[in-house]
Amino acid sequence: MIGKNREKKLRVIKREEEATNKIAVKKTSNNRGFYYSFLTIILLLCLVQITISAVLNISKVVSYKAKIVQITKTKDAALALNDQLKDNIKNFSNVTGLEAIARNNLKMSGEDEVLVIINTPKEYESIENPHKLDIFSFFKRN
């Protein structure tokens, strides 16, 4: 009997050990599942951040290239204007060029010359608006 009781106790102890082992295995598998889920979520967040950064960088590159093209066009136009102004300075640095400026723009004349200015009406003053209502013409009819 003593042997049977001992065997029963050993069986009970083995069952308890197996139960505690199963609980420990379940806890470790639950912990592993939690860690794997947590790491998966972190990885997905990193991938989302990388994707957003890539899209923003591409859009910045496109806008910067457009700005570079615009600035290059502006620079070329400014260089052309500078060349034109340099040519004008060369042309007007002589006496005849200065006389042309004085006659045309400043309305000046030489010592033995007479300046005659004829004013012509401007186009917008000579053209009358046909849709314009004239109050006085209304009173003249009546």
Task: Give the overall shape.
Answer: rod-shaped
Helix percent reads over 70%
Low-confidence stretches: none
Q: What structural category arises from helix and sheet content?
A: mainly alpha
Using the CA coordinates, give the radius of gyration: 49 Å
Order of helices and strands: HHHH
Number of discrete helical segments: 4
Structural domain tally: 1
The separation of the N and C termini measures 144 Å
Strand residue content: under 5%
Average pLDDT, to the nearest integer? 77
Number of E strands: 0
Looking at how many chains there are and whether they match, the oligomeric state comes to single chain
Largest pleated sheet? none
State the gist of this model:
This protein is mostly helical. The chain has helices at residues 2-92, 95-104, 123-126, 135-141.
Question: What would you say this structure looks like, in words?
Answer:
- With about 140 residues, this protein is mostly helical.
- It has one domain (about 1-110).
- About 80% of the residues lie in helices and about 0% in strands.
- The chain has 4 helices and no strands.
- The longest helix has about 90 residues, at about 1-90.
- The radius of gyration is 49 Å and the shape is rod-shaped.
- The model has no long low-confidence stretch (mean pLDDT about 75).
